[in-house]
Amino acid sequence: MAGVEILRAGPGVTLQDFGRPGWLAQGLSRGGAMDRLALHEGAALLGQEAGLAALEIAGSFLTLTARADLRIALTGAPMRADADGSALTWNASHLLPKGARLDLSGSPGGYSYLHVGGGIGAPETLGARSAHLVAGLGQMVEDGAVFEVGPDTGGRTGQVLNPLARFDGGVLRIVETPQTALYPAETRARFTETVFRKDARGNRMGQRLVPDGDGFELPSGLTILSDTIIPGDIQITGDGAPFVLAAECQTTGGYPRIGTVLPCDLPRLVQAPHDAVLRFEWVSLKDAVELERREAARRAALPRELRPLLRDPNDMSDLLAYQLISGVSCGDELEEA
Amino acid sequence: MADAGTENGFPAIAALGVDGLLVRFGAELTEDANRAALAFCAEVAGAGLEAVVEAAPSLPSVYLRLDLAAGDPDSLRSTLREILDGRDWYAAPLPGGRRLWRVPAVFGTDLAPQLDEAAAAAGLTPEQAIESLCEAPLRVQTIGFAPGQPYLGALREHWNIPRKTGLTPRVPEGALAVAIRQMVLFSVSTPTGWRHVGQTALRLFRPEEKDPFLLRPGDEVQFRPVPRDEFEAIRARDPMGGAVAEGLH
After folding, report:
1. How far apart are CA B229 and CA B236, in angstroms?
2. B22 closest CB neighbour out of A228, A254, A293
3. What span, in angstroms and rounded, lies between the C-alpha atoms of B55 and B70?
4. pLDDT given for residue A319 in this prediction
5. Which of A135, A170, A335, B113 counts the most CB atoms within 10 A of its CB?
């Protein structure tokens, strides 16, 4: 049976897809991949639908062997990828022959993804294969685990794309929440003037940010009635530091939320390395809707951005025999060269 | 009652995130606002609005997520306003098929170590606190935070105590915690700012079951204080944690 066998999995390796929409009323958040854009990129590289499950590697490492000829793609935070001694380009698709051993290491932090043609197979629970550890759904991937692989429709490998730049921190655009008005105008302005650093305390539930300067406590904040909370919401807990909610967040929360990060900017947050500098910038709801639609259109057009990894990959009988590019690559070196 | 609501500016529609709207029936949790939220959510969920991909009630409000490819927040806002104007949501009845659950719980001891602290915050002795928390059935006002997890209320006014400034690193599944005139019965082990006053052996989220969520909004729950040894015996023998349900009419 086609599949992969996990030889060694570091902490925080899970199976992820787009999660489980529709259970919010029952208290179950959508969950799914932390960097949803990476799932789209992987799907484009393999020419398949984006909802298939991939392995998410959270600042960790992974070694596996292919039990059949597999098409794979590597997206998200760029790692060192090695298949039986050959370095593989990141943000690209490759053929992994039966019996080959794939080593993914040297994570810069953030979330890396290994996609397989046909998707990683596992039984669905409540409509998805994603692990949702907070809810007790699924589990971390462990050494020795064997996964089936779904039927691969086949297609080309040796494709590469330039990922949207999102691996070095930067500006996160935010919209107002129903509680933003509780904050004095001075505090709201200071929020966008403050430089934040990404704290080591971050996981699939959310990410704490450390302000360079005073915090953003709201004295009346401890008696706010709990209400619906969504990924991207910036919750200010008791210590005044912002905590940005992520894929596996709770569904209701009672701490005040100063703003909400645009979904299209969440990959930039989750992929920023520890200690990276992040800032916030207010945008109007109207502009935010436009930015989201533009990003959705760009995502849909990803397949048209693919380029061959080599000039003519069809002429190469065994891509793995070639040292394509040494070491870690973001996939943009070819253009710069 | 609709007039009382609209006079205060409710129901109000606010944006929640780029692709969501929050319809609020009050700034505070009242019985009317909670019933209005449950009924309005059911109505919108059943209306088959193309742009709405998710509808979920919370305490006095309803969250609607839309597909920005299929609709626009502004036009959804107008549609919702029409539905809101269509009837007096504050007079809506509770959902049908409600049940009363009686659930044994240990209060205090090392299983629920913040009882004394919570009682003091409410100006009660620990004994009075237990009596007050168990004297009457509490309504499941919403399910949220974690899968199948109820917010129960409303407690008497003296329980209008704030959350703690710091978080308790971890309370176990089945923990009962109190703040702002509500109790939460935790469905997963989690950090919380609410004070851990009681412990049950209830499993509220059972993903392996056909219906994985035990409680529904509108259900009622009454706790029965039991000594620790009785609790341990229940926990050892009964996967339902000693809970029994009867229909409410």
Report:
1. 11
2. A228
3. 16
4. 52
5. A135
Whole-angstrom distance, CA of residue A181 vs CA of residue B27: 14
Count Cβ atoms within 10 A of the Cβ of residue B19 and give its class: 0-12 exposed, 13-18 middle, 19 or more buried: buried
Virtual CA dihedral for B93, B96, B102, B107, nearest 10 degrees? -50
Residue in B17, B18, B207 closest to A136 by CB: B207
- Residues of chain A found within 8 Å of residue B59, distances taken between Cβ atoms: 225-227, 252
Q: ipTM score here?
A: 0.87
Which of A223, A263, A292 shows the shortest C-beta gap to B162?
A223
pLDDT of residue B171: 96
Helix ranges (DSSP H) in A127-228 = 185-193
Residue with tokens 């009630």: B57
User: In chain B, which residue's Cα lies nearest the Cα of A260?
Assistant: B17
- Smallest CA–CA distance, residue B118 to chain A, in Å, is 15
CB atoms within 10 A of CB B28: 12
The shortest CB-CB distance from B148 to any of A27, A228, A238 is to: A27
CATH code linked to domain B99-247: 2.40.100.10
Neighbours of B97 (CB within 10 A): 10
Let me know if domain B12-91 sits in CATH 3.50.50.60. no
Q: Where does chain B have alpha helices with state H? A: 2-7, 31-46, 73-85, 115-121, 126-134, 228-237
Q: With beta carbons less than 8 A apart as the criterion, state whether A60 and A13 touch.
A: yes
Alpha carbon of residue B201 to chain centroid: 18
Judge whether B172 is closer than 8 Å to chain A, CB to CB: no
> Start-end ranges of CATH 2.40.100.10 in chain A?
170-298
Kindly report the nearest CA distance between residue B142 and chain A, in angstroms. 8
Please give the Cα distance from A160 to A92 (Å, whole number): 4
**At how many degrees (to 10) do helices B31-46 and B73-85 cross?**
120
Does domain A170-298 fall under CATH 2.40.100.10? My reply is: yes
- Residue of B18, B151, B163 to mutate for A, most A C-beta atoms under 10 A: B18
> Which tokens sit at A22?
């529709």
What residue segments make up the domains of chain B, in order of their start?
Answer: 12-91, 99-247
Instruction: Give the SS3 label for residue A89.
Output: coil
Q: Residue A293 and residue B213: Cβ atoms within 8 Å?
A: no
Segment A110-132, tens digit of pLDDT: 999 999 999 999 999 999 999 99
The model's pLDDT over B16-67, given as tens digits with 9 standing for 90+, comes to 999 999 999 998 878 899 999 999 999 999 999 999 999 999 889 999 999 9
Report the alpha-carbon distance of residue A236 to residue A245 in Å, rounded. Answer: 11
CA distance A103 to chain B (A): 34
Please answer whether residues A151 and A118 qualify as being in contact, where contact means their C-beta atoms are separated by less than 8 angstroms. Answer: yes
- The tokens for A333 are 């070196």
Give the B window 225-244 contacts with A, CB below 8 Å: none
